[in-house]
Design a protein that fits this description.
Helix content: 40-55%
Strand order of the largest sheet: 2-3-6-1-7
Radius of gyration: 23 Å
Shape: globular
Number of helices: 18
Number of strands: 12
Strand content: 5-15%
Largest sheet: 5 strands, parallel
Length: about 400
């Protein structure tokens, strides 16, 4: 079995024969039952692959979806003009990077549609492009924006300065936020030229005016119909990866059932809604089967620098955050309050919902699984050791003592 590690392009996965967990029934529902969406999921959880899948669907690439669930649902396969923007690859700590990324994308699109513009405003330029695309294709345009929030996350809580076009000095964080606000404002006035819009990211900056420029998108981050849109459910694990589980079990020298149990404890436990559907971390699962090892793949891939900065700034005690009930408003919408990093910790995937009280709209937050618990403790512990080799050893010693019931040491 070929595992698509690091591959986020749906076409490449299908054409090159990589394993694909079929989410296309949800893609069809998403594309045909709404207009403007926002989805928050942790990093490396399949957001980019989802956006890529939507891109090829709206481009009418029926050949790529043969044999998948959507093949029985879609009858027309209409071709729309699709605009796919990703902010995932650039480093936005350098002033001017966000301008460069947006300007290049718009310039390329203007060349494609032979638009000669003297307008400097990014939102107005994109609006003209969408209108031209609608006119040329005879169908409204689709806009897919991946990692919309990275220009903000890269610079949050950093005292970086920039000079704007009028010569004023300001924080780069404020500059990027204002630029994105103006860029996204086009969606409100360009509605007649838009068929479908979707933005993905780690967090929703609802209180910092990024989304205020256009009608609020339908936030499906905790929508019960889309809990399994990204990630791997237990049913998907047992069916799609049955042979992989057996290979891992043989390599570990344990039973099939014991292997599933270890996978569940290590990588399962994410919940994105009231139905409490168990979601396995897809990045860790793929790497586990590919390497035949139960390592902390997702956590080892790097703790986001913005989260480390926020934790250091707030000096938050993680033990006081976990195992408690919170009102949904306390952790769903990030309010850019560096003194209260809970929403960012949750939305980054380091805490998840473990129980919910529907009557009180309260949710119990805790670590999703062993991988995240051990990794987070190691990250916190590293603050207290000068030698970076000591935290891991300390965590292992403490874990071993707890397993043995030895609390004295």
């Amino acid at each position: 079995m070929k595992y698509p590690i690091g591959i986020q392009d749906f076409e490449k996965i299908i054409e090159d024969g990589y394993v694909y967990v079929d989410k296309t029934d949800l893609v069809y529902k998403l594309a045909n039952e709404g207009h403007v969406y926002f989805l928050s999921r942790p990093r490396r959880f399949g957001k980019s692959l989802l956006i890529s899948t939507l891109k090829y669907y709206f481009q009418g690439r029926k050949d790529l979806f043969k044999g998948l669930a959507i093949d029985k649902l879609e009858k027309e396969w209409v071709v729309y003009p699709v605009f796919h923007i990703s902010f995932g690859t650039a480093n936005f700590t350098k002033p001017g990077t966000l301008d460069d990324v947006i300007d290049k994308y718009l310039s390329d699109a203007e060349n494609d549609y032979q638009i000669k513009t003297k307008v400097k405003d990014y939102g107005l330029r994109f609006k003209d492009i969408l209108k031209a695309a609608h006119k040329k294709a005879g169908r409204r345009a689709v806009v897919l924006i991946d990692e919309y929030d990275k220009p903000l996350l890269d610079v949050i809580d950093l005292d970086l300065q920039v000079t704007d076009s009028e010569g004023n000095r300001m924080r780069l964080e404020d500059y990027n936020r204002n630029l994105l606000k103006g860029f996204y404002s086009l969606f409100k006035d360009a509605d007649e030229d838009l068929q479908f819009v979707m933005l993905t990211g780690v967090t929703k900056f609802s209180q910092v005016s990024v989304f205020s420029g256009f009608n609020q998108p339908d936030d499906i981050s905790m929508n019960r119909r889309y809990e399994a849109l990204c990630g791997i459910t237990k049913d998907e694990l047992l069916t799609v990866f049955d042979s992989s589980i057996r290979e891992l079990a043989d390599d570990l020298g344990i039973s099939y059932e014991a292997t599933v149990d270890r996978l569940k404890k290590k990588y399962d436990g994410y919940h994105f809604g009231r139905r409490m559907i168990d979601i396995f971390n897809p990045f860790s699962i793929l790497n586990c089967f590919n390497n035949l090892e139960l390592r902390n793949f997702w956590f080892a891939s790097g703790t986001p620098t913005y989260l480390v900065r926020l934790l250091a700034h707030s000096n938050e005690n993680i033990n006081e955050l976990v195992g408690r009930y919170y009102d949904a408003s306390q952790f769903i919408d990030y309010k850019a309050d560096i003194e209260q990093p809970l929403p960012m910790i949750y939305q980054s995937g380091y805490l998840t919902i473990k129980d919910c009280n529907i009557e009180d709209n309260a949710y119990l937050l805790d670590f999703p699984n062993e991988e995240v618990r051990n990794g987070f403790i190691g990250t916190i512990a590293s603050r207290y050791f000068a030698n970076t080799s000591q935290p891991t050893s300390w965590v292992m010693e403490v874990t071993d003592c707890l397993r043995k019931g030895d609390t004295a040491n």
